[in-house]
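This section describes the prediction task in plain terms. A model, or a person checking by hand, is given the sequence of a single protein chain and must write out its three-dimensional structure as a string of tokens. No templates, partner chains or ligands are provided. The sample shown here is typical of the held-out split.
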Amino acid sequence: MPATTRAFRVGIISDTHGLLRPEAARALAGVDHIIHGGDIGQAGIITALRRIAPVTAIRGNVDNGDWAGGYPDTELIELAGRTIFVLHDLKTLPINPVERGIDIIISGHSHVPKVDTVNNVLYVNPGSAGPGRFKLPITLATLDVTSDNLRPVIHELVAR
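The expected answer:
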């Protein structure tokens, strides 16, 4: 019987707006890497996330001030053999992901959780894990990556 390889699990969170809910920290426990899609809100959020796993974070439209200066507007990373492009607002996507060989686009901003595949590119918006707004659910996402599969899941953290 062939050995089963454990999936590489990525936690995807966005729009915390200065609030890291205990439910979010619990949902991210055990992930291999965390991606924050912007609107962090304050430096302490990333510090707390780094206690859980390594973090890749980008700046969102509410992230200003000295603490936010070290975060880029976009990030291109490779995790578990997959190329991931991270930006805050999908409407501002500055590249053609198919031409660039991108496997996954991570965004935030809209607070609307969404998973979609277009032209073999997986798009994940984890929704907002911060303060409740717009009567939308409080969510984040996980993404299990294996050599032949991507399995994104949206997790509702607080019933509304």
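For orientation: The chain has one domain: 8-158.
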